[in-house]
Structure formats: C-alpha cells, structure tokens
Write a structure and sequence with these properties.
The chain has 550 residues and is mainly alpha-helical. It has one domain. Helix content is 79%, strand content 0%.
Length: 550
C-alpha cells in the first residue's frame, strides 16, 4: 500500500533489490508492518481532517443546543437531560478517550512498528474493555439514583431528580458503544486513517436533531426523545468505525477476555491514566454540584461549555488525536528531531487558532449567546448568565488546548503517573475555588475553578516536560511566533470592541441578527489574519503547503 496512506509496503528480502519485483502488500495487523513517517505537512493535514469533521459536528451540536434551548430553555427537563447525558460522557472519558486509549495507542503503535501481532493485541484490548463496560453499565442501572445525587445534589428536593434518574437509565448504555468506538478510532488514527473516526460524532448530533423534529411532529415528550436518541447514536457511531477498522484489516470481534503479558502491561499503564481521567471528571462533578444549587445554572454552564468546546474540539481534539500516535511512533524509531518538529508545529498550530478564539469569547460573549440561544424559553436573563460563563471559559481556552499538546509527550513515553499527579493538584485548585467562592459569587465560581485549574495543569505539564530531552524543547520558530500571535489576537479584540457596539442594533433584529453576527465574526477573522500576516505570526506559503492536495 502506498506510504501516503500511512500503510507502506513490506521491504524486499535481503539479497534482492526492491526494484526487481513489485512490493508485496501486507495485512496491517500482521508481522512486518512498518508505519510511514508523518511529515509536518501530513501532520497538518491530519489536523485539518479531524478538525474539519469536528467543526461539522460542533456546528450541528450548536443547532441541536439551539433547538433544546428554544423548546426546553433552562427549565427542569433541560437540566435533567443535561445531567443524565453527562453521565455516560463522563464515564466514556474515564474509560476510553481519557485513559484507556492513552495507554493503548503507544503500545499498539509499538506492535505496528515492531512487527508484532497488532491485530491480536487490539482484539484482546477490545474484548477486555467490552467486558468491563458491560459490568459498569449494569451496575450503573442499579446505582443511578446515587449517581445523579453525586452529580447534582440540588435536584433531590424537586422534580428534576426523578426525571434525571429516568433519563440516565435510558442514556447510560451509550458508554458501551462509544467507548468501544473510541478504541477502534485509536486503531484507525494510529494507522493514519482519520476520516471515519472524526466523522462519527456527526451522527450523534444528526440523530439528536432528528429525534427532536420527530418528537415535535408526534407530540412526544422532548426529554424522553432526547434520552432515547443517545444509545441509538452510540450504536450508529460504533457501527461506522467498526466497518472502517474492518476495511483497514482490523476486524475486531469480542472473545473471552485473556490475561496476557500485553494486557497486564496495558493495565499497569492504563490504571494511572484512568485515575487521572477520574480526577478530571471529579472537577466536572464539583462544577455541576455547585451549579445544581442555583436555579438554571446547570443549563447556563452547559450552553457556555458548548461555545468554548467549538474551538477546543476543532483544534484540541484534532491535535490530541493526530499527535499522540505520531509522537509514539517517532519515539519508538528514536526520531528525536522529527518528534520535536511535530510537537512544536502542533503547539504553534494550536495557539494560532485558539488565542484569537479566546479573545473573541471574552470580548463578544453576549452577542454570541444572544444570537445563538436567545429565543423561545431562553430569555435575556439566561443570555447574560450564560455569556458571563462563556467569557470565563474563554480565558481558559488556550490552557485546555495546550493540555492536548503537552499530554502526548507523557503518554507517548508510557508515562501516565505524572499526569495523574498533576491532575490531583489541579483538582484541589478547582475544588477550593469552586466551592469556596460559590457562597459569594454564585454559579460562576464553577467556571472560574475550571479555568484556573486548567492553567495549573498546563504549568505542571510544561514544567515536567523540561527533563524529557530535545523532543520536548521549543524551537526558535515557535518562540518567535508566540508573541506575534498574541499581538495579532489582541489587535483583533480591539477591532471587535469597536465594531460590536456599532452592530448592536442589527444584532437585536430577529431577521438580521445572524447576518450581523456573521459580519462581526468575519471582521474579527479578517483583522486577525491581516495583522498576523503583517507581523509574521504565520505565512501564506506555509498555510498553502499544509493544506494543499497531493
């Protein structure tokens, strides 16, 4: 197979020149497989593929949340569903994306690079994860009331509690399908095949939107329709990546879990990562607990989370998905120069996109929320409360993305203990701020705790990476461009501060506000692009080379 696809051909046997006969194709999971080196240009293309599909998913997610806000507002059903849906998502990040996959991908990459039985290793991991998740799902059905209390103790005294328990029992099986889909996505990403895994989240939002439209036509309760759409979407996402992995040579079917040396090694590496993932989820639990005692705050923070998750998803997730397999394979091949190049270009790419996004979220938070969500049951008071949370989360956006850049330095070296230690400190910072400030400043304490904890985590990851050698060092290009990126973003913020009040009358007109918001965003992007090019924050030839077709 062509190296440009990430699956190179088997070398010719010794004693016979490679040009004497065509290269033989090998099964990706078999012995003798060697991965193609991922150049910076291919790395950027991987970011673009994952980021593009993630952008599509997040835009559909906006449409989904606009519909939820219009029909349910920040009322009891909306809050109950949002808490119930957060449960399988929380456990998914704990078991799969935030922990299991971080341990699985470097070991899987080693199997591919070293010619081991990558298919057998992947199948064993698939079977073990499936068995664990089935047990967790069954236990969660029994413990659902206590899980809801753990997330939102403020619900106990009103109708939100029973609704959240019911919705939670319907939605929780999603964890089984989406976590297995995450493992299959890790297989595909390590092979350099990003499209199917990146496209899978689109199905979730398509099915949510379809469920709401159908519920409106049929007169079904909207909360129930949303809850039932969750497990259906999980099955659809799993099916998509399973078919893609099968076509790539990894047709994984469950079998009786086996305790092999590789599985023991996976468990040893995954355990600290799972604990670190658990710490991150504790931060979310703390925030939701604080918010549950303030009427409407669960919905305000959830809608604000959706806004800052757009750039975080498009950039941060794209980098995390592409960078970890690349670093793992480069370190395996002792390619220190290539590893440093990948790390620095990922950091540059991340900050060039997220620093201006953070400035925009702070400067024009209220127009964004008003245009996107203020309609139907979502009123001006909800807009003001959500916009404040958006601005606070915006201050933490670069930190949330930098974590995605720095963590692969540890996971690629199979070091999951250090991120766990750092996450514990960050959890302490979050808890002290969120709980300690809540009696004085209300629900916004949860957002402040999340943002400050994010920066505390970045500082620890950065300081800890200094002893990792040249692969984790910043290069001259990154050091010279960071202040220019910041300057261009601040200039863009100044433009938005001037233009937003001028467009305020149009932003208040229902028929024109989308156009006015689009114009505001376009002016911001234009100002950032012009300033960035003028002062050398980025250059057109590099952008053209990164995204050009072969």
């Amino acid at each position: 197979m062509n190296a440009s696809c990430g699956l190179p051909s088997r070398p010719a046997p010794s004693g016979r020149a490679a040009h004497d006969r065509p290269a033989r194709r090998v099964r990706p999971g078999g012995a003798g497989y060697r991965g193609a080196a991922v150049t910076p240009i291919r790395l950027f293309r991987g970011f673009a593929t994952v980021g593009g599909w993630t952008l599509g998913s997040r835009l559909l997610g906006f449409l989904r949340d606009v519909m939820i806000a219009a029909t349910l507002g920040a009322g009891p059903a909306a809050q109950a569903f949002l808490i119930a849906f957060s449960l399988p998502n929380m456990f998914r990040r704990f078991f799969a994306e935030g922990a299991f996959n971080m341990a699985f991908i470097p070991l899987f990459a080693k199997k591919l690079e070293g010619g081991g039985d990558a298919h057998g290793f992947a199948r064993d991991a698939f079977s073990a994860l499936a068995a664990l998740l089935i047990v967790v799902t069954l236990l969660a059905q029994l413990a659902m009331p206590w899980l809801i209390l753990g997330l939102a103790g403020g619900f106990l005294s009103d109708e939100r509690f029973d609704m959240a328990v019911w919705f939670g029992r319907i939605a929780f099986p999603y964890i089984l399908f989406i976590s297995l889909a995450a493992l299959l996505s890790g297989v595909l990403n390590t092979l350099g095949r990003f499209t199917a895994a990146a496209a899978a989240p689109v199905l979730l939002n398509v099915l949510f939107i379809g469920a709401m439209l159908l519920a409106g036509l049929m007169g079904w309760p909207m909360g129930d329709a949303l809850a039932w759409a969750v497990p259906v979407a999980g099955v659809a996402q799993f099916a998509l990546v399973w078919v893609a992995a099968s076509r790539a040579g990894f047709r994984l079917l469950p079998r009786r879990p086996r305790i092999t040396p590789e599985m023991r090694r996976l468990a040893v590496i995954a355990a600290p990562a799972m604990l670190a993932g658990g710490v991150v989820q504790v931060n979310l639990i703390v925030g939701r607990q604080v918010a549950s005692f303030f009427d409407g705050a669960i919905a305000w923070l959830s809608y604000a989370d959706r806004l800052y998750q757009l750039p975080l998803g498009v950039v941060g997730i794209a980098i995390g998905v592409v960078l970890l397999p690349d670093l793992a394979r480069r370190l395996r091949a002792e390619d220190t120069v290539g590893g440093r190049q990948s790390f620095n270009r990922a950091a540059e790419f991340a900050l060039a996109l997220t620093v201006p996004a953070a400035v925009a979220l702070v400067v024009i938070a209220e127009p964004l929320v008003a245009v996107l969500f203020q309609r139907g049951a979502f009123g001006p008071a909800d807009t003001a409360a959500t916009a404040l949370a958006v601005a606070v989360y915006g201050l933490g956006l670069p930190a949330f993305v930098l974590q995605k850049v720095l963590q692969p330095l540890y996971f690629a070296r199979e070091d999951t203990r250090s991120p766990l230690r750092f996450a514990l400190w960050a959890m302490a910072v979050n808890a002290v701020l969120a709980v300690g400030l809540a009696p004085f400043i209300g629900y916004i304490a949860a957002a402040i705790g999340t943002t400050v904890a994010g920066w505390a985590m970045v500082w620890q990851l950065w300081a800890g990476s200094r002893g990792m050698g040249d692969a984790s060092r910043t290069d001259e290009r990154l050091r010279s461009r960071l202040p220019r990126i910041a300057l261009a973003a601040l200039g863009m913020g100044a433009v938005l501060l001037v233009v937003a009040p001028l467009l305020a009358p149009l932003l208040a007109v229902s028929g024109l506000r989308w156009l006015a918001l689009g114009l505001l965003v376009a002016l911001g992007l234009g100002a950032y692009g012009a300033l960035g090019l003028a002062i050398g924050a980025f250059r057109i030839p590099e952008l053209r080379a990164a995204f050009a077709r072969r």
